[in-house]
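Table S2 (text version). Query chain:
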Amino acid sequence: MSKKTGYRGIKLDLKYIILIAIIITILLFYLYPIIQEDNNSTNSATVYNSTENYTDDEDYKQYFISDGKENSNEYITEILVKKDIGKPTGITIDDNNNIWFSNNHKGYIIEYNTEINKFTEYKIPLDEYEQNHTQIWSIVSNNNSIWFTEAENNLILKFNTKTSEFSKYEIPTPDSFPLQLAIDDNQNIWFTETYGKKIGKISKLTNGEYSNKIIEIDIPGEIDLLGGLDIDNDNNIWFNFLSINGNITNSKIGQFNQINEEITIFDVPRNIIAPVGIAVDSENMIWIADHGSNFIAKFNPKNNKFNIYSTSIPDNYPTSLPYWIEVEGENVISNEHWGNKILQYNKNDGSLIEYNILTENPKWNNLANVLKISQIKNGEIWFTEMTENKIAKLNTKIDIPFTVRIDNNQIKVNQNTETEIELIIEFNELTSGEIYFRKSLIYSLDRIETEIEITANNYKEINDIKKHTQIIQIKVNNVEKDVYNVMLGIEINNITKLIPVTIIVQE
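Corresponding structure-token output:
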């Protein structure tokens, strides 16, 4: 009991991490008055390529530019965005494989043609002051239209890619802060209101147009922050939220049934403290990114059961802060905001691959501030680096050049003893580099166990080898009898591979 209480004490401190991690990204842009318009506007386009000069403005550079370089490898390709078009956040892929992303410095949405390396920017029809203070968190492509949220001005907007027309939809609840969009099977537009504490709907009419009236649906219960949203195969709307009661956070997920218009709320495990990203896979499993911990989670609506999975522990922070989440086939993708990585979790074998973001900004404690990822398309995922003025692509179809295994993934240990296991790393070819031992938190569904120690030689330089064995020590000190989970693996050449291990603590 004391261990659980102690762990909750850790969570009390993480309340402030939540407030910093979720809200600080909002405060980067500041808050400004809300426009009171609803009209259509046509915008001329400006075209340029990615080789144009990067900004030399030192004041701007201090906060939103790191090195001005496209740091790429065979997995991640970085692309610099034009000078003065800064703070990209929302990003999506259209049917023609063009990339659309937001600019939160001058009030544009931008199309990037991957075939010819061309950017085309479209100025959002706001007045000058409002254009300079936009916050576009979510962008979705659908049938020659780009839908996006504009949180600063309390709007949902649509851009017609054929006519270059913008349509604006003002949210009835003031200062609602629309966060994430999704489109259901009937082409209705759904979104979450972070501070409005509602989900909203823009209905598609029988004539093919969209209603000018936004429908808002109140979420029952105590809510302080409403997070992401996605839609399952039965057209149910799924969302997540949290409440803060004193020093305790309480997180939940919800389902809105469009047929009977009922909302069902589900409790989440105590380890999930600030869910933001949410995604539904092909089997109607609900995946959650917890932006207050190291965890992603899976919820099975058929039996109301959760499973949680941990990232590796970052070098500079206590938590990695997964933010947004997407699913394609067997792979779950999320961005680790404080881990400065993109993770890929394999649903079949439980393994985890983490790709290091190659840009590290020392002014942001070596973070690139990866704030939004696109939907996965053919194994490729695009993401934005807000403070670096870059967009980037991760190709997950490229196999990593090594495997990690343990002969027995279930380790039985006794109290007050030390056990050794062998972590075997095999490379596809002769490899040189620096090997770092990586591990996750040690956890059960509702608790983190800090009295199990797992150690290894954290660093080793290798030269021209095809196989390496890492000796790992597991020490148990007066730990409650239970079954615990941990991810163990290595990092080499900016790639981390971890595999699941079960630790069974016996009497």
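Notes on Table S2: Residues 1-20, 23-44, 50-54 have pLDDT under 50 and may be disordered. The chain has three helices and 37 strands.
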